Amino acid sequence: MRVSVPRLVVAGLSGDSGKTLISLGLARALADRGLRVRPFKKGPDYIDAAWLGAAARATCRNLDTFLMSDEAMAAALAAAAADADLLLVEGNRGLFDGVDVEGSHSTAMLARRLAAPVVLVLDCTKMTRTAAALVLGCRALDPELDLAGVILNRVGCGRHETIVSEAVAGTAGTPVLGAIRRLRGEDPLPGRHLGLVTTAEHPHPEEAIVRAAAAVAEGVDLDRLLAAAQWAPELELKPARPAVADAEVGIAYLEGRAFSFYYPENLEQLERSGARLVAVDPAAAAALPDVDGLYIGGGFPEVHAGELGANSAFAASVRARVAAGMPVYAECAGLMYLARELVVGGVTHPMAGVLDLVVEQMSSPQGHGYEIAVADLDNPFFPAGTRLVGHEFHYSRVIAGGDRARTVLRVERGTGTGEQRDGITCGRVFASYLHLHAGATPGWADGFLALAARYAGERGTSTAACG
After folding, report:
1. Is 433 a member of any domain?
2. In terms of domains, do 164 and 257 share one?
3. Are 71 and 44 in contact (CB under 8 A)?
């Protein structure tokens, strides 16, 4: 199929350049004009994606040339393009930063793949004419990249803006589409150890988005920016065929302030395959609902360990279902919650106790980046030999584990649970630090739901317990 939807990639020279705040502001300011903005986040990222979705009032999806096949990316783009006036992609890290010295899988590489014009966010803190040198460097490094314009960020005053604008437009020959002054007062997007505070935990997320939109509406020439998006040529897409429903089971997934990291495609894939999804907050619910499987994504159990540990009734219901054979698929925060104990700041909190593990939250990253692993031992979820491509980003580590816990993944790239291993299994429980994207692992949902269907047929019988 061919699509001709206007599109833009918002990029920066580095992390913390302000591209997320400007992307949020653009999404909301344009949505307020009545445009149907469909947002994307480049790379493996849940937090920025949730903010972008809230700003655009539409589902935000991820695009990643490392994690996803061309067909999976095409499916995401096609779904969004069906009713979009603009596809808005926020890049990650610096424009040319990838997995190697060549910049493979960078934002620039994605922009070329999408044939999308790039708007560069330039942090102008304590800088004037040097800004032109930076823009010229970007042009020289990749002359084929469609660098449509620059948005100056963190500008100090009118004179500062004038000097930088004239240098970039004159010396670097690149249009300046706007300038954002340094915001006064409290940071609308505060950060912490895994990035920004999530929308679920921010005290006033809508106010933060409105503030970003006001700054962009005041400082950016939105008409010129939209004109640049119109330059994007027609794009040919070959999306993968969606799976056909072949299972009818109930799957619960944990949500709330402690668990909010789910790719939309993962939940959609489960639903397309026949699952009835039920969201449940483990900090508040009295018990696990009557379901056939449990999916626990990522999040911040370390921040909410006290609340999670205090809800012993919910944890007991999870243990009882696992003992009866219910399958559980857990990623990162899910692994932490299934452990017997979680240690945060020297304080030990009881967790679900499904796995006989002790996990400790550290002060620095224990695993960060793409992860590649191969299933080298039999397990209920992935046939031996299955190659899994995903990502990890965790400050926690397993510091003690019972002898019943075993790992079934050999890590080829990344950290996992340590010693080049990941994928702790016990019975029908699979827990790892590896975050998978359904677009990169199409067999994930089928394997999970097959186990859930088997458990549904076994109700009333007892199987081997875990933990």
Report:
1. yes
2. no
3. no
Q: End of a domain among 189, 210, 236?
A: 236
Written as six digits, the tokens of 437 are: 């994207």
What's the CATH number where 296 sits? 3.40.50.880
CA dist., res. 72 & res. 441, Å (int): 10
Question: What does the pLDDT read at residue 402?
Answer: 62
pLDDT band at 460 (very low <50, low <70, confident <90, very high): low
DSSP state of 169: I
Handedness of CA 182, 183, 189, 190 (dihedral sign): positive
**Which whole number is the average pLDDT over 202-221?**
95
Q: Are 171 and 130 in contact (CB under 8 A)?
A: no
Retrieve residue 96's tokens.
């040319």
157 as an active site residue: the answer is no
Q: Round to whole Å and give the CA distance between 433 and 336.
A: 9
What does the alpha-carbon distance between residue 28 and residue 212 come to, in Å, rounded to a whole number? 8
Q: Exactly one of 124, 332, 426, 466 is catalytic; which is it?
A: 332
Domain final position from 193, 211, 236? 236
- C-alpha 328/C-alpha 349 separation (Å) is 21
- Lookup: tokens for 161: 């803006």
Q: What CATH code is carried by the domain that includes residue 86?
A: 3.40.50.300
User: How far apart, in Å, are the Cα atoms of 329 and each of 292, 294, 296?
Assistant: 12, 6, 6
- Residue 243 within a domain: no
SS3 457: helix
pLDDT of residue 190: 86
Rounded Cα–Cα distance for residues 397 and 150 (Å): 41
Contact at 8 Å (CB) between 262 and 252? no
pLDDT at 246: 65
Asked whether 391 and 342 are in contact (CB, 8 A), the reply is no
**For residues 152 and 124, is the Cβ–Cβ distance under 8 A?**
yes
Average pLDDT over residues 387-395: 95
Mean predicted confidence (pLDDT) in 93-115? 95
Whether residues 148 and 287 share a domain: the answer is no
Domain count, the chain: 2
Q: Are 434 and 416 in contact (CB under 8 A)?
A: yes
- Range of the structural domain that residue 322 is part of: 249-458
Residues 287 and 158 in one domain: no
Does the pLDDT value for residue 183 go beyond 90? no
- List the structure tokens of 95: 């424009």
Mean pLDDT of 212-237: 94
